[in-house]
Amino acid sequence: MNILILGSGGREHAFAWKMSQSPLCDSLYVAPGNAGTAGVATNLPFSVTDFKALTEALRQYQIDLLLVGPEEPLVKGVVDYLRQQPDLGHLRIVGPNAQGAQLEGSKDFSKAFMQRHGIPTAASQTFTVDTLNEGLTYLESHTLPIVLKADGLAAGKGVIIAETVEEAQATLRDMLAEGRFGEAGHKVVIEQFLRGIELSVFVLTDGVNYKILPEAKDYKRIGEGDTGPNTGGMGAVSPVVFATEPFMRKVEDKVVKPTMAGLQQDGIRYVGFIFVGLMNTKSEPYVIEYNARMGDPETEVVLPRIQTDLVELLVAAADGELDKINLQVSPQTAVTTVLVSGGYPEAYEKGKEITALDQLEEVTAFHAGTAESDGRVVTNGGRVLAMTAVANSLENAVRRSQEAARTVQFDGKQYRKDIGLDLIRYAD
């Protein structure tokens, strides 16, 4: 089977690493890929939104299975575009169509979906530039803190938690009147702040059947102790100690099943991953957000724990036969620590040489923002590497991941030294 993965981040390197191990995989391609994917696959030099180049590559390399990694091409309708090509009817695609991808592409759409189908979530209202004054008035009587979310895609940075009414009003003006998030901020969802502890639950579905994959907890903020601005993710842990069997049963009954039923009732044939961002509030699950793909860096701790052949799993999803697959998951713990460029999530420099990757032991370094230059591996993004360790205990996985984070070097390297420590305390 010839396989193409669309994307260039740590998530896509993790997918390529896992899929390259399958006996079902003959030739593996990643577009555009990075320095890490180049080690297990052939990189193709076109962007994730160049649908014309993608279509030509699918034909040229006789691709049988396409996995769409990031959200942008999904929201922009890559699946719909390919389904209109008469000679690509045989192509298996893992990823939802544009309508399904609206679960992530529009916060307003997803909140309305949850409310319509009785899925537990925070109370919210949506405002536009035309209703800015109503929004400012609405904030005056809102409980604190206040969550403001840009409606569209904002690379994981479109959520602001305001501690005062004045800050919330200034943020709302900034987003709607000043265009802080551009097109993504033309609508703003204002919602109540949920107290609790977050986790991410991942579902793979063929449109009818589904498998709940290993859960994970990620760390969004740049600073230790969850301080500073949001990032795309500074680390992740799987499994999550507070995701007990009774809690996960509630997640399936109150969230996953109604989500699947809601998609079918709304006439959305959804094939692919649904990432459910949850808040565990007094042992009850509330949905914070949906994503239409796997998370990053959560993929880098979820995939190492899946023992079932990943290609077999994805083919079954594309063929509508997930019910025939037995999903097997390792009981071990996976921890990843993300190394980021100096200045991230604000302005940062690229092209810094990365050294000591060859010194790593018992750890997989998933490349996120890397490139090859004159035979060297250099930084090429804000999030550079995800150092994933798998061990028999959370403590050992944390220790190995952190040792790897200390070992690898590049100018301006930053990383959080507290990934997983809150879960060790929680367990104690």
TrEMBL record:
Pathway terms, separated by semicolons: Purine metabolism; IMP biosynthesis via de novo pathway; N(1)-(5-phospho-D-ribosyl)glycinamide from 5-phospho-alpha-D-ribose 1-diphosphate: step 2/2
An annotated Gene Ontology molecular function: ATP binding
Catalytic reaction list: 5-phospho-beta-D-ribosylamine + glycine + ATP = N(1)-(5-phospho-beta-D-ribosyl)glycinamide + ADP + phosphate + H(+)
GO terms for biological process, alphabetical: 'de novo' IMP biosynthetic process; purine nucleobase biosynthetic process
Positions of transmembrane segments: none
This enzyme's EC code(s): 6.3.4.13
Taxonomic superkingdom: Bacteria
InterPro entries hit by this protein: ATP-grasp, ATP_grasp_subdomain_1, PreATP-grasp_dom_sf, PRibGlycinamid_synth_ATP-grasp, PRibGlycinamide_synth, PRibGlycinamide_synth_C-dom, PRibGlycinamide_synth_C_sf, PRibGlycinamide_synth_N
Keyword terms of this UniProt record: ATP-binding, Ligase, Nucleotide-binding, Purine biosynthesis
Sequence ranges assigned to domain ATP-grasp in this UniProt record: 111-319
Family: Belongs to the GARS family.
Protein name: Phosphoribosylamine--glycine ligase
UniProt source species: Rudanella paleaurantiibacter
Gene from which the chain derives: purD
